[in-house]
Amino acid sequence: MTILYLVRHGETVDNVNQIMQGQTQGQLTENGIRQAQEVRDQLASEHFDAIIASDLKRSVDTARIIAESHHLELIETPLLRERDWGGFTGRYIPELRGVTWPDDIETLENLLSRAGEFITYVKTTYPGKKVLAVGHGIINKAIQAVYYGKQMSEVQKMTNAEVRILEL
């Protein structure tokens, strides 16, 4: 069985300012760096066979901090990218309530498909191994929805730098 430690990146400037980040790079705040360091310290005694991150800066930076105590090369993948929010990207989230969604937002079907592809990738590439993966709030939620066979709305949102463990 493959064990997946699924982590959400640390807090970013856009998280604090309630900006829809989507697939922008993002920048960790000092608190976000501290959150990543806390995860690193919490998991320092765990053995990981691989550390994977979304190829977006906020996840890469979080994963690099966590990886410090594990001496593993970081693997980046676009499969773990956050949902593409299209025309909502860069907008102030409270202003989006009740607004008609633009046509360029990544579909839920595509998001869930990517989540399934990621699970398959981890299971086939690292069978019987322990893997830590740093993603984003919505893609991590999609991964868990696929894993548990639930609707996205049934999966509790992950906080910044939260860790959840899945047995694949």
Summarize the structure.
The protein is of the alpha/beta class. It is 35% helix and 15% strand.
Give structural notes.
The protein has 168 residues and is of the alpha/beta class. Helices cover 35% and strands 15% of the residues. The protein is built from five helices and five strands, in the order E-H-H-E-H-E-H-E-H-E. It has helices at 13-16, 30-42, 57-67, 108-125, 137-148, and strands spanning 3-8, 50-54, 74-77, 130-135, 163-167. Strands 3-2-4-1-5 form a five-stranded mixed β-sheet, sandwiched between helices. Strand 2, helix 3 (57-67) and strand 3 form a beta-alpha-beta unit. It starts with a strand and ends with a strand.
One letter per element, helices H and strands E, the order comes to: EHHEHEHEHE
> Could you list the spans in which at least 5 consecutive residues all have pLDDT below 50?
none
Number of strands: 5
Structural class: alpha/beta
**Radius of gyration based on Cα positions:** 15 Å
The percent of residues in helical segments reads 25-40%
Largest sheet: 5 strands, mixed
Give the integer mean of the pLDDT values: 97
C-alpha geometry: globular
**What is the CA–CA distance across the termini?**
6 Å
**Beta-strand share of residues:** 15-25%
Q: Tally the helices.
A: 5
How would you write the strand order of the largest sheet?
3-2-4-1-5
